[in-house]
Amino acid sequence: MFADIGPHPTAEEARIATGRPLLALLGAAVATLPACARDSTSPSAARAATITATTMRTRIGALAHDSMRGRATPSLELDKAAAYAAAEFASFGLEPGFGSSFLQAWSERGLSASNVAARLAGADARLDSQVVVFVAHMDHIGTATSGEGCVASGADSVCNGADDDASGASAVIELARTFAGLTPRPRRSLLFLLVSGEEEGLLGSGYYVAHPAVPLSRTAAAVALDMISRNAPDSVYVVGLSASTLDTLAIGAALAHPDLGLHGSFLTGGGSDHASFSTSGVPAVCLFTGLHADYHRPSDTVDRIDADKAARVARLAFYLGLELADRDARPSSAAAPARGTADGGAPP
């Protein structure tokens, strides 16, 4: 959910923001990416290509099926989603994120649910104690009778949450599968984290940063994915609560991979799980494709998603995460980036 994000940039703001200083900054960011990260024939590109519209649609369809009853926090259906993610992580050969368990139970504000996490160990002995986190929320707002704000539309009383955020949760599972099969492994470790309670006020991610699987001092960055399957096929927002070099790296990754067909725009805001990390001192961004008329309505269903776009945003997260895991330097604070798109086009 992104209720606290201000108005999207206007076409004029986008035009001004994409002047030479910003383009020069982004060009420098692209230049720092390893050649293998920009090579469409590299092993990493071959692995990224396995994230497809079909794999994304299948996972989104499973999480957003009517039988999942909108995955309210708490609910048996949300527990079912957590169990599904844990089983998938185990099938990929990943390590449990919380000692011997993939699950992290939490209780906050009278609500109880679980987060799910899996770890892929890094290949560099100097860096594998550090982690890059991919995070998305599994929960949505349930049904018209669950008290979380879902309003029935005629006979349809289930707010399925296909875009919000079965799309992001599916992307994290796909990223886990993709990185698990990558050779060589990234230098830093990776943590694939699915949280609950986001719709209730970032409860799951808030609990995680207070009880992290890896100390926050060793968490190099967090990349969140929330609502990544709607609106114009070429648009994606890079949202940050505070500025860091991670913002520029994210836009640079899109520019370095024109095959993704994505043009990134900076937005400043919280409203999703990246905010829990950012306010705890961890550089964090969220990939987000914008609000729409089906937001928090029963009409946010799998038949309305753009599965190809969701797959391309997930592949962008793959390239960004690989860069974060392999580069020598961790992201650092930076001057706030200008708002707008990298190519001067107006966001949706």
Describe the structure.
- The protein is α/β, with parallel strands linked by helices.
- The chain has one domain: 3-Layer(aba) Sandwich (Aminopeptidase), CATH 3.40.630.
- It is built from eleven helices and ten strands.
- The chain has helices at residues 11-17, 20-32, 35-38, 43-48, 53-63, 76-91, 162-180, 203-210, 245-256, 274-278, 307-326; strands at residues 95-96, 103-108, 111-120, 131-137, 189-195, 219-225, 235-240, 263-268, 284-288, 340-341.
- Strands 1, 2, 3, 4, 5, 6, 7, 8, 9 and 10 form a ten-stranded mixed beta sheet that branches.
- β4, α7 (162-180) and β5 form a beta-alpha-beta unit.
- The longest helix is centred in the C-terminal third of the chain and has 20 residues, at 307-326.
- The radius of gyration is 18 Å and the shape is globular.
- It starts with 10 loop residues before the first helix and ends in a 7-residue tail after the last strand.
